[in-house]
Specification:
About 30% of the residues lie in helices and about 30% in strands. It has helices at about 25-35, 70-80, 135-145, 170-185, 195-205, 230-245, and strands at about 20, 40-45, 50-55, 60-65, 85-95, 105-115, 130, 150-160, 190, 205-215. The chain has a 5-stranded mixed beta barrel with strand order 5-9-8-6-10. Helix 2 runs parallel beside helix 5 and helix 3 crosses helix 6. The longest helix is centred in the middle third of the chain and has 14 residues, at about 135-145. The protein is globular, with a radius of gyration of 17 Å. The chain starts with 18 loop residues before the first strand and ends with a helix.
Length: about 250
């Protein structure tokens, strides 16, 4: 690795466009590049970080996977900022907390409950995790233009995927009460990266948003995830939104 490349993502300044989609799954990063980008080109592949660049409607864009969870997502965004990236949209999957959501719905996060540990290494627990409002509006406009079912509101970020199932934790009743309290407070959906990305984005002065597709409708009951999540609406909305900052 050359001295100017970042240690984890293996990318140097000038090698990647400043508009970046952030999926968790490396294979999803490849799929986005190969099926949605014009002129797709691999940038780097190291650990969980697989990056590609290309164009969407003539605008240079990139995608870089972050792996699962806030710790690895934090590394990705920190190093991408160091090489010149300025605008990020997480494209991921989520489990519905709101009973109004069904599988396939799009959820745009305006902020996130910080029920994870990474962001607490940066700021106190009382500090909010808020999406960049201009990115939220761009995602809303893109979703409306496509005519898809979507919701905007507060999301939830956690560290342990299976902790949402009551029977998997030491305090099942307390866990059920936790999810019901969040539902009553209007929290829409749960995932594992947004809160840390929002906090770091604010601290570093870059734009960060999150849009997810719902793949599970009952977080308190274990459901095996079968098949691949629908990506067309999710990716198109994210690409239309992020490239609007350069058109």
């Amino acid at each position: 690795m050359s001295d100017d490349k970042e240690y984890h993502i293996d990318i140097a300044p000038g090698e990647i466009p400043e508009l970046v989609l952030l999926p968790g799954d490396p294979d999803r990063a490849k799929k986005i590049a190969k099926e949605y980008f014009d002129e797709p080109e691999e940038i780097a592949k190291k650990r969980e970080y697989w990056s590609f660049k290309g164009k969407w409607k003539g605008v240079p864009v990139a995608v870089c996977s972050t792996g699962i969870g806030c710790p690895s997502a934090a590394i990705a965004i920190e190093e991408l900022i160091k090489v010149g990236c300025t605008t990020f949209i997480r494209v991921g999957t989520s489990g519905a907390i709101s009973r109004a959501l069904t599988s396939g719905d799009i959820v745009i996060f305006s902020g996130a409950v910080r029920d994870e540990g990474t962001s607490k290494q940066y700021v106190p627990p009382s500090f909010p995790a808020i999406a960049d409002p201009t990115v939220v509006m761009a995602l809303k406009e893109a979703a409306e233009a496509m005519g898809v079912r979507y919701a905007i509101g507060i999301g939830h970020s956690k560290d342990a995927f299976y902790s949402e199932h009551p029977d998997y934790v030491a305090d099942p009743e307390g866990n059920r009460a936790k999810w019901e309290a969040m539902r009553n407070a209007g929290v829409l959906a749960t995932e594992m990266e947004a809160a840390a990305l929002f906090v770091i984005g604010h601290l570093r002065g870059v734009k960060v948003g999150t849009v997810c597709v719902v793949i599970g409708e009952n977080i308190e009951k274990e459901q095996k995830i079968v098949g691949k999540p629908p990506l067309d609406n999710l990716v198109t909305i994210a690409l239309d939104a992020i490239t609007s900052f350069k058109r």
